[in-house]
Amino acid sequence: MRYTIALAALISMALVNPMKAQVGGLEGDGEYFEALRTISVAVPIIAVSPDARAGGMGDVGVASSPDVNAIYWNPAKLSFLKEGTNSLAISYTPWLNRLVNDINLAHVSFATAIDDKQGFALAMRYFSLGEIIFKDENNIDQGTGQPYEFTLNAGYGLKLSERFSMGVGIRWIFSDLTNGLQTAGLEATPGQSIAADLGLYYQSRVFNMGQGQTQSYTLGLNFSNVGGKITYGNTSQEGADFLPANMRLGGAYNLSFDQYNRMSFMVDFNKLMVPTPPIREGDNGYSGDVNGNGEPDDGDVLFGRDDQVSSFAGVLQSFNDAPGGTTEELEEVIVNIGLEYWYDDRIAFRGGYQYEDPQKGGRTYYTVGFGIKYNVFGLDFAYLIPGSDVVRSPLENTLRFTLFFNFNNSEN
Question: Under CATH, which number does the domain 2-271+334-406 receive?
Answer without folding.
Answer: 2.40.160.40
